[in-house]
Automatic annotation (TrEMBL):
Organism: Pyrolobus fumarii (strain DSM 11204 / 1A)
Protein name in UniProt: Helicase HerA central domain-containing protein
Lineage of source species: Archaea, Thermoproteota, Thermoprotei, Desulfurococcales, Pyrodictiaceae
GO molecular function: 3'-5' DNA helicase activity; 5'-3' DNA helicase activity
Taxonomic superkingdom: Archaea
Family label: Belongs to the HerA family.
Domain Helicase HerA central, chain residue ranges per copy: 146-399
């Protein structure tokens, strides 16, 4: 145990009169003036007890008794610069801080204060000892320590891994540090302390929209290990030139997990973008596929090698005057089938009767915790449109749902974290973000609403949570909020069930890599500002190189 707070921390200020159990005004000491920042946490040593209260600095104010508006020296200040200099030399400005009191240190959840701090109570730096502060032992199994509490190097936020099952949302505008921070979190989750010096990794699948997580693959391939992860495998689409590089596989999916009705929906949605899907067309196609699957074909066979059987049956069922399928409906279905077959199967090679992303793969990575990166970057999925990516995500979500339902029935407890970058593209809020293909959304919603014992945890990353399906969003219970645009502040504050006002106000001005962390995983029990920790693995994808690229473009041109 480290030394007690009184001796390790120097006094930052003293409480002035008028404090309540929720708020106090303090005057800072000279030392305090140098190091106290707005947003920072401080301690208040409660008079007459050994207890420390924890408070957040909402506002700093600098005051001076001589420079008050309308005071006796107003005219002097107007007229004479010399007098101004004299006034400055005798005025002694001081700083006051508005402190929002969070609770009593030393117990999880930081309970409320029994009585307000007294005038003269000392404001101090927090001791860097998590058990003194939060009542949580540094070595507690199942706790990962995230970043640094804003203002304190070496004082991380304890996160309870057990509560990841209630899903996590990571929000913030572009460049605010979401992907870097999620990478950092994944590093922590690949080395969860189990006690006795042992660590374990949580199995994970990353839907990597921009290749932000490929550095982890690279490090695994070159060093052969990454935390306690067994493997890191990158999935690329079959036309990617990277498909035969080490620890890389082609992603091929089948539709056999889906019912004929779902397959029909997927195909018709693929054509229309999912916006207005025609019920008559879906049920007619459902009928065709159902008939043929009853005859022994798999859905995937029917949409790849055996497509002609589907065309023929469709033709048969729509021929003649009393045909069960109207010829116009048949024509629309035919055109949707054509497009699906041509693009998903022929052009991108995603659909296959020999899928590579299978139930056995999920069995394997949940038994031998591994990370799968579905690489949707331009290298990993060249020319693949969003709709095909949505189909892949729908498939993965459906497969996971199927597998985890089975595990549950079998009493086989397993866990997996599904990380989705650009979550609004897979679980769109169609009211204000009409990008189509809601089938992925439906399965993600199904997973999200399963409850915490199901075993699949979602980690959704989005620039615009307002564009994420509200059902899915409402199921997230831990939030890491980076800098957000002014228009989004209220939406986000509401989505996370309210934030203290002073924190809410800071959201639009957070520096890159600083975030508010709130919700179930945060064992402090109150939202706090945190500086994201340094990743062990670098983050090359997030960088832009405008100037360097221009330099290369111009090298050898100017003057020679
Ligand atoms: N805490 C940090 N420490 C060091 N560098 C950081 C930190 N956070 C972000 N960066 C760097 O800043 C850049 C932008 O961060 P990042 O890519 O994580 O933003 P983002 O919120 O994911 O943006 P987008 O929404 O556009 O994907 C990256 O180069 C990243 O490596
Ligand atoms: Mg990003």
């Amino acid at each position: 145990m480290r030394e007690k707070s009184e001796t390790t921390s120097r006094v930052l200020g003293v409480v002035l009169s008028g404090a309540t159990t929720k708020q106090a005004i303090a005057q800072l000491t000279e030392h305090g003036e140098k190091i106290v920042n707005e947003g920072m946490l401080v301690g208040i040593q409660l008079w007459g007890s050994e207890r420390l209260a924890i408070a957040r600095v909402e506002k700093l104010r600098i005051e001076s008794d001589i420079f008050k508006p309308g005071d006796a020296w107003s005219e002097l200040r107007r007229e004479s610069l010399d007098a101004l200099t004299m006034l400055e030399s005798v005025s002694s400005p001081y700083v006051t801080a508005v402190l929002n009191i969070i609770g009593l240190a030393g117990e999880p959840g930081l309970p409320p204060l029994p009585r307000p701090p007294k005038p003269g109570d000392k404001v101090v730096e927090l001791p860097r000892d998590p058990s003194l502060l939060f009542g949580i032992d540094e070595n507690r199994p199942g706790v990962i320590w995230y970043g640094d509490i804003y203002g304190y190097q070496g004082l991380p936020v304890p996160l309870d891994v057990e509560n990841i099952t209630m899903h996590v949302g990571v929000f913030g505008e572009t460049g605010s540090g979401k992907s870097y921070g999620v990478g950092y979190l994944l590093e922590l989750l690949s080395q969860i302390p189990l006690g006795n010096g042992k660590t374990a990794a949580l199995p994970m699948i990353v839907i990597d929209a921009n290749g932000d997580y490929l550095d982890y693959h690279h490090v695994f391939v070159t060093r052969g290990s990454l935390g306690a992860l067994h493997k890191v495998i990158r999935f690329v689409t079959p036309r990617s030139r990277l498909r035969s590089t080490p620890f890389t596989r082609e992603i091929k999916i089948s539709l056999d997990f889906f019912t004929p009705r779902e397959a029909a929906e997927i195909i018709m949605m693929y054509k229309t973008g999912g916006l207005d899907i025609n019920e008559m067309q879906v049920s007619a196609l459902d009928r065709v596929i159902s008939e043929l699957t009853e005859e022994g074909y798999t859905i995937t066979e029917l949409l790849t090698n055996e497509i002609n059987l589907v065309y023929e049956r469709l033709e048969e069922l729509s021929r003649g005057r009393d045909a069960p399928i109207h010829h116009q409906t048949a024509r629309a279905i035919r055109s949707a089938l054509d497009k699906f077959y041509r693009e998903v199967y022929k052009q991108h090679g995603i659909l296959s009767t020999e899928p590579t992303f299978t139930g056995e793969l999920i069995d394997d990575i949940t038994r031998n915790p591994s990370m799968l990166i579905v690489d949707f970057s331009a290298d990993g999925a060249p020319g693949v449109p969003l709709q095909v990516k949505q189909l892949i995500v729908a498939y993965i979500a459906r497969l996971l749902y199927e597998k985890f339902t089975r595990y549950k029935v079998d009493g086989d407890e397993r866990y997996l974290l599904l990380i989705i970058e650009e979550a609004q593209n897979y679980a769109p809020n169609l009211r204000n973000y009409p990008i189509g293909m809601s089938i992925a959304r439906d399965y993600l919603a199904l997973i999200a609403t399963q409850g915490r014992k199901f075993g699949i945890s979602l980690l959704l990353v989005s620039q615009r949570p307002a564009f994420v399906d509200p059902v899915v969003l409402s199921m997230t219970n831990t939030w890491i909020i980076h800098r957000v645009a002014p228009d989004d502040v209220h939406y986000i504050a509401r989505a996370v069930g309210g934030l203290p006002e002073d924190l809410e106000k800071r959201l639009t001005s957070l520096p890159r890599g600083v975030a508010v962390i709130a919700g179930q995983m945060n064992m402090i029990g109150h939202p706090v500002l945190v500086r994201v920790g340094k990743r062990k693995v670098s983050h090359r994808m997030g960088m832009t190189r405008v100037v360097e690229t221009l330099r290369r473009l111009y090298s050898g041109r100017n003057g020679d």
